[in-house]
Amino acid sequence: MFKFGQDIGIDLGTATILVYVKGKGVVLKEPSVVAIDTDTGKVLKVGSEAQNMIGRTPGNIVAIRPLKDGVISDYDTTEKMIRYFLRKVCKNRFFKPRVMICVPSQATEVEEKAVNDAAISAGAGKTFIIEEPIAAAIGAGIDISKPYGNMIVDIGGGTADVAVISLGEIVVSNSIKVAGDKFDEAVVRYIRKKHNMMIGDRTAEELKIQLGCVYPRPEVLSMEIKGRCLVSGLPKVVTVTSEEMLEAFEECAAQIVDAVHTVLEKTPPELVGDISTGGILLTGGGSLIYGLDKLLHRETGLDVYIAEDAVYCVAKGTGMSLDYMDNMKQGPRYRN
Ligand code: ADP
Ligand code: MG
Q: For 16-68, how does the pLDDT look when each residue is reduced to its tens digit (9 = 90+)?
């Protein structure tokens, strides 16, 4: 069939939004942040430019992350953000694109509908919904159509999703609201308690990425960080080590291990057998925290792999599934 419109896949993540254009691959990767002028309601910046404003805005400007815990928490802003990115990638203004968009495995119908409606009002022609773990698996190059169990653990900013997939469907899944953001919060809390110092979210994330670990690093790393002393109220500098981060992350890490155990316990034995052969696949930015693969291996005895391009898997899989689009859940079914 000859088509004028584009086919587009969107990974609408809590932390990152990625856009895949059929024939081109992932063309855009930006933080899911929008800066808004509260006096006029106008969008000032979207993506990384808006991200740089977080915590540094004057009174009349707010930098918003419109998705929280994996679902839309601010509908209007989400729609504006999608509109901005669609405009950026759509060359043809006359024909609306077909858009495949992913939702977390445990999203409710209401949440799914919100994502769908936001995409439609942001300028999508037809919309299609795919569950994130399925997209992650396809994007990681797994052939999910076989009667064979694969376990995917996708850790983003808001949620960690554990799913067992076979024959193209999710057989068992679990989603917890413990992911990258919770690790950042754990750093802030730890530094406040241990060093009597207040640090910002950006510093916390940097510490997590540079030093953070959920399994001991082969050598202890350290880093100097700046913040505000809670006693004197003045700027303060302290040196933090990776061992301290291990302590800070203990609880979050244990919750992720628990979530994996829970799914394994509910998985039918044949599929558990498959997983014990094939191992667990980690995707999403949150899975890049040092040692998560080693920790999960220690706690489950299974092989654990981090997907190549872990941050891109869901977007790629969402885009790749555009080819099967016509057989998938179609957005406007909600319109009856
Ligand atoms: P989402 O799908 O929710 O948008 P992403 O898959 O983009 O999320 O992952 C975002 C999370 O990954 C953030 O919390 C970010 O801090 C974290 N992250 C990204 N890179 C790393 C890294 N190298 N080490 C640890 N965490 C990371
Ligand atoms: Mg994601």
A: 999 999 889 999 999 999 999 988 989 999 999 998 887 777 788 888 899 88
Pocket of ligand 1 (CB under 6 A): 13-16, 156-158, 180-181, 205, 208-209, 284-286, 288-289, 311
User: In ligand 1, which atom is closest to the CA atom of 314?
Assistant: 2
For the sheet with 25-31, list strands across it: 25-31, 16-21, 7-12, 98-103, 127-131
Residue range 132-165, pLDDT digits in tens: 999 999 999 999 989 999 999 999 999 999 999 9
For a pocket test of ligand 1, which of 208, 215, 249 has the largest count of ligand atoms closer than 8 A to its C-beta?
208
**Relative orientation angle of helices 132-139 and 313-320, to the nearest 10 degrees:** 90
Q: Which residues contact 258 (CB under 8 A, 6 or more apart)?
A: none
Structure token pair of residue 124: 């999508």
Cβ proximity of 84 and 76 under 8 Å? no
Place of tokens 């997590």: 208
Residue 333 Cα to ligand 1 midpoint, Å, equals 33
Distance 30 CA to ligand 2 centre (A): 12
